[in-house]
Amino acid sequence: MASQPPAKGVFLSPLQVPTFSGRERSPSGASLGSSSTWSPTDTTHQNSSSPPSPSSPTSLTSPASPMSATLSPEMARNGDSSHLRVHSFSHRPSSSIDGETLRARSESFASSSGPTLRSRASSVDPSHLAKEFDDVPVSEALQSDARTAADFEVENNRFAFSPGQLNKMLNPKSLAAFYALGGLQGLERGLRTDLHAGLSIDECRLEGTVDFQQVTPPLSETENMVGGGKSTTTDEEHPIVTPEPLSTGDGQPYEDRVRVFNENRLPERKSTGFWKLLWMAYNDKIIILLTIAAIVSLSLGIYETVDGGTGVDWVEGVAICVAILIVTVVTAVNDWQKERQFAKLNKRKNDREVKVIRSGKSMMISIFDILVGDILHLEPGDAVPADGVLISGHGIKCDESSATGESDQMKKTDGHEVWQQIVEGTATRKLDPFLISGSKVLEGVGTYLVTSVGPYSSYGRIMMSLQTSNDPTPLQVKLARLADWIGYMGSAAAIILFFVLLFRFIAQLPDHPDVSPALKGQEFVDILIVAVTVIVVAIPEGLPLAVTLALAFATTRMVKENNLVRVLRACETMGNATVICSDKTGTLTQNKMTVVAGTWGAKHRFAQSADVHAETQVMTTVEAFQRFSPSARDLITKSVALNSTAFEEDREGQRDFVGSKTEVALLQMVRDHLGMDLTTERGSAEIVQLFPFDSDRKCMGVVYRVTGMGYRLLVKGASELMVDACTTQVSEMESTKDDISTEVFSASAKQNVMGLINQYARDSLRTIGFVYKDVDSWPPKDAKRHEDDPSSADFKSAFHGMTWLGVVGIQDPLRPEVPPAIEKCRMAGVQVKMVTGDNIATATAIAESCGIKTEGGLVMEGPKFRQLSDAEMDDVVPRLQVLARSSPEDKRILVERLKALGETVAVTGDGTNDGPALRTADVGFSMGIAGTEVAKEASSIILLDDNFRSIVTAISWGRAVNDAVAKFLQFQITVNITAVALTFVSAVYSSSNSSVLNAVQLLWVNLIMDTFAALALATDAPTEKILDRKPVPKSASLFTLTMWKMILGQAIYQLAVTFMLYFAGDRLLSAHLDPVDLTHRSKQLSTVVFNTFVWMQIFNEFNNRRLDNHFNIFEGMFRNYWFLGINAIMIGGQIMIVYVGGQAFGVTRLSGILWAVCIICALGCLPWAVVLRTLPDRHFGIVFNGVVGAMQFILRPVLKGFGAIASGVKSLLRPVGRFTRRIFSRGHRKGEDSSDVAMEIPSRAQAVDEEARTQVKVSRSESRDDHEASIPRTPVEAMSVPPILVTASP
């Protein structure tokens, strides 16, 4: 007689049941199908199918089986921590199964009875699917995202699920996806594993496939799930046949499993070699322009040296080459050090062994060998190595702060219980069966099923997202434009000068018929040299070197202020930051639960600092405990020390508490303020009975013997429940009293206590109440005793008539330096937004307390934020101040939208979950002490002291670096404009086509002095006033109106003085020049011009210490020893050049009078700068913009004409280029045809490998349309990957 089918909602987990022959075996996939909650076997189908044999597993679990009525969900959940067994049956444990009984898990779906028909008729009430246990409906839970569509497509998938579908359970956590995948039973069948025996050690290549529809519950009559991609109907119309996937015994171990789901390793990021970095550093526009100038200058210099015999004309070209070498080597070395840091991080063999169940036996394997479908053990202190779902366990709690940003410990519920509540319609959002890689187990033991490893795991996805290139910084973009502008202007000036001199040379040819062709050629070369000199002068050779050295110097100074800059240019970017997206846990808060407030007895209120509350009766924590009597102190100590499951262990030479964050906070409070020794307290106490924490009663208790008094019951737990159980309260705890006084706990007193509790809750504090009761005997006479242990009392019967001891409020406290730092950010024009995985109430309270949340600011939750369109986000993001319950992807999207709106975004974080946003941001800050290595690697700057205040320091230094670059540009452009104009005019004026400043003199001015000046200007430390201005937007020009005013004003003054000395100096200084030797007289005058020009640059450097219109250019100068030292070197160098430069520089010694003339003329730069600063920028801007507009109007047609000519030349040269490429390609093919066959095969293989790697990258980054499904895809196993690094929370 057949029994009735199971009722709706009954879940039968895969159990080990004995066969009729007395041997046990794990039910096969076919048999499980008949006992599935969502598809109980229909009697009609059983009759229509071939009757199963008595030994068939199907017959054992069918409703007709005599034992089917004895299986229940309760039985499924009973058992020890590692296996779920039905204790009503007598059988051997899994670990003792003999070889005949133990089958390979690769054959676990095979049935000796052949194919089994499986019913699709659902026994799940459809109304349960509408329950609010997730943010998305079940029907949409497995829909692929555009960015991860490739993870849902697996060629020749022999499993029911793809990596993308499995990942939907954890990114973010989704109970809807858990249900859509069939719960633990669906995962077990779909992944072809066993929840008890694990994977088989004999599994290799698999035969057959498991279909998505066969292992998952039907959601509707016409469901359209991503996993199947097909519309399903009931088996009454189209019966579904369970396949028989068998292991072929061929191939590598776990071949199909590794191919589909990958290994627990990440794709290796190839480090860039030094020579490639050198080449990359060389590919800079200014460097390329310098190279062209150096080649021409060196070639002509060598020609001049050989022809003229002077011996120094080649120095200019060599010096430019040296400048190029210094720039590229410095840049390459910095990048190489950065690459070495990354390589060192990847090569850290964080290998460790974990306990796994395979073939029914526990064994230790490397974390790199973990596979999807493995069953792993969990113990306190373990770092979770891969994503998964909890199978069984007791009291498991995890710290996921480093992975999700959630500071609270996360209680885990096993998958069986979660499934049962889902099908019964009682599931809530608080249920969490998911284990996230990178988190840490705090309490409990159990086992879990691995669902994602390697690049598909949460940790792996974060690490993969870090392997992207950074965008160029705003300064890099602006300097590139400046290089283009300078190159065009310099080339234009050189071309104009060349043609002016050339036309004059041609016009003068008829006037000198007696000149030999050699001399005419020499004169033409001189013209070319002058033109090249103009290009050399125009291009600021010192610019890339100066910027690099300035940044390097700033980063060195920043290390002393606890800012370790990993990316050299990040500091200048930080100076222009407009938004800081800060993580809450570990960044704004201490990531350490702490008792911050509380009330002992009736009136002893305390807080961390007395000024926290306005009430005068609130004491500090230290003051409160100092006032208590020894009895009160002992009662509080024992209430915490004895009634706790946390323990102490040695960590790096210190004794730290290990356990739940709440208990650790309480123990830390008692140890800090009452001098508790946990080992002594527990060792000296006589514990009579323990009441472990229970989620139903929300409290825990302990009974210990009190000498001379009897027994004392200590209970701590949810404060509201503790209040209800009390009839008395502690009234006096002062040191003047020897004993603890109590009084009746009146209704008004209870109301006052509840008011305190509610106040703490509004302050986002987690409240813990403490109560106790003294009894003469244990168990108490009126208490109910346990039947199996008469010496133990039932907690419920004993928990009444308690005495109220007090309540404490626990919180992840705000860092004390955060509020003033945020206020400074606001004054500096920098918005601070908090992005956290915490709940909205806690996030809002923290944001308000630290000053982030202001009136009119928006607070939003991640699930709602991610549903907004781009247009809606762009409207919300500027006003958004707090983003709660956010996933790592939400944080990254927020950063992307801010960047799209033109903001310069900085992100702070310490957890693994912050990695993608840290890398996406313009500047990423990580915490050096509490930060995970993933966060440090993704960041640009590491805060060595984990102090949010250091971010303000970084902003200050960033602005100082930007100011240094601006000061240098102001100085450099002034020099270049003056030098180009002076060279141009003097060359045109000279009858010999020579400039007043020769090439070597210009080299000293342009390279050596500019480099020294840049370092001198970059060594000014930031001041407090630097934060009083708004950040500079990305679109802002490198040059402000004030800078242009100083550049043009100083250029005019310098040109006026040098032209005066050049054209009229012979008359003005005739009394002090050599009257006899005209050659020496000319050299004296040219030396005066050169010396005056250099000294004007030295004094102008002092002017450039300020970028504003204030007059005090000496502010802080005498505290900057670098500035003083570098200027001393520059002055000494110039004096040496004049006195001993001689022939190399083309100078001669000057008399005291001529030195005085040079210094006085140069000193005029300082008062002239005062005059310029008094000129209003607004008036100067009108004139300046008018002149620039007129020039643009005039030059626009000219530039268009040049552009048309250039396009025509390109179109003429394009056929030549095609012809050349065709010739080279033919020659290349001929060379390949003539090569040896043995050499050809490897080359083709390499090409295939390269193509394979390319396809893997494409498959990971781009979603494919349906019509592209036929494109061959490279198996996942083609990836070469290093070990995955699992970082636990510190």
TrEMBL record:
Its EC number is 7.2.2.10. The keyword Metal-binding applies. GO terms for cellular component: plasma membrane; vacuolar membrane. Belongs to the cation transport ATPase (P-type) (TC 3.A.3) family. Residues 255-297 form the Cation-transporting P-type ATPase N-terminal domain. InterPro entries: ATPase_P-typ_cation-transptr_C, ATPase_P-typ_cation-transptr_N, ATPase_P-typ_cyto_dom_N, ATPase_P-typ_P_site, ATPase_P-typ_TM_dom_sf, ATPase_P-typ_transduc_dom_A_sf, ATPase_P-type_domA, HAD-like_sf. Residues 27-41, 56-70 have a biased composition (Low complexity). It comes from Penicillium ucsense. The chain crosses the membrane at residues 286-303, 315-334, 485-507, 527-554, 968-989, 1001-1018, 1038-1064, 1121-1141, 1153-1172. GO terms for molecular function: ATP binding; ATP hydrolysis activity; metal ion binding; P-type calcium transporter activity. This is Calcium-transporting ATPase. Pfam families: Cation_ATPase, Cation_ATPase_C, Cation_ATPase_N, E1-E2_ATPase. Residues 350-466 form the P-type ATPase A domain.
